[in-house]
Design a protein that fits this description.
Strand order of the largest sheet: 3-2-1-4-5-6-7
Number of helices: 10
CATH class: Alpha Beta
Shape: globular
Number of strands: 7
Radius of gyration: 20 Å
Largest sheet: 7 strands, parallel
CATH superfamily: NAD(P)-binding Rossmann-like Domain
């Protein structure tokens, strides 16, 4: 019997894309599935699909930027299934492509609220429930390859995904004594609608350029991005990869091994920078100091 059978997973942004791929994969493992999403119509489509596949499912319309809605989701999950054993912080949005001077405060605020605060609120709400029942569990945060290497003209998105990777590393050590396994998923391009994120952006936060969706969707940049995403990995494959990785207790979950060389180049640049610092006479006094990082 699967170690997940009869347990409950909560997935934000679970109505489609990666979130739904993980929901389907965990449901096949016998888990009860709780989906939270801002898109009520898509949520109902996903609920019907999973029910028809024999999966126990609860859906709750929610906005991850609102802590009270996370609390409502938690209450409904516990009321329906008794306990929460796994949280997948999946909800995320893509920022408008543009250089630093053309990324306005409203865009920064929206991306930070969804991609960063949504993960924080979800973790703060669900982890205490896992600690409470004492059976351990899983925390899976969905970042991106952008969390491993900076993406030009996507500063806001990159910033949030780097933060999610860093928080996951921090929580990995923090939650290990509670038998809560932490993993961070860092995919490259997957067949989702993240390039159309502004469909769910509050009107008050949209720029004039974003309000003209027809013009945006017909731009060369938008057409190129759509082509790349259309050729991306299937969300169902990503979901099965997540099951495989957490079975192996992996902290970093990668879905695109072809990006390994990109990261190796980054890590070499970092290592070379350390080598240069070691040769600096200014820093000779700290070479043999004990490293003051907490790890467990």
């Amino acid at each position: 019997m699967s170690q997940y059978a009869g347990k409950t997973v909560v997935i934000s942004g679970g109505a489609e894309g990666i979130g739904f791929g993980i929901a389907r994969a965990m449901g096949k493992q016998g888990m009860n599935v709780v989906l939270g999403d801002i898109d009520a119509r898509q949520l109902e489509i996903s609920r019907t699909t999973l029910v028809n596949e024999g999966i126990n499912v609860l859906t709750v319309t929610m906005d991850v930027t609102d802590l009270s809605q996370w609390e409502n989701l938690a209450n409904k999950a516990v009321e329906r299934f008794g306990k929460v054993h796994m949280l997948v912080n999946n909800a995320g949005v893509g920022s408008m492509p543009g250089n630093i001077e053309h990324t306005d405060e409203k865009d920064w605020r929206w991306v930070l609220d969804v991609n960063l605060m949504g993960v924080i609120y979800g973790t703060q709400t669900m982890v205490p429930l896992m600690k409470q029942h004492g059976e351990g569990g899983w925390l899976i945060n969905v970042a991106s390859m952008a969390g491993m290497v900076g993406v030009p003209s996507a500063g806001a998105y990159t910033a949030t995904k780097v933060a999610v990777v860093g928080m996951s590393e921090s929580w990995y050590a923090e939650l290990k004594p509670h038998n809560i396994q932490v993993s961070v998923l860092c995919p490259a391009f997957v067949k989702t609608r993240i390039n159309l994120s502004t469909r769910n952006k509050p009107e008050a936060l949209k720029s004039e350029r974003e309000k003209n969706t027809k013009s945006m969707n017909n731009s060369p940049m938008a057409k190129h991005m759509q082509s790349v995403i259309d050729n991306g990995l299937s969300p169902d494959v990503v979901g099965e990869r997540v099951v495989e990785a957490i079975n192996n207790k992996e902290l970093y979950i990668f879905t695109h091994p072809n990006y390994r060389k990109v990261l190796q180049k980054r890590f070499k640049n970092i290592d070379d920078a350390f080598a240069r610092s070691e040769s600096s006479p200014l820093l000779a006094s700290v070479l043999d100091e004990e490293v003051a990082l907490y790890s467990k």
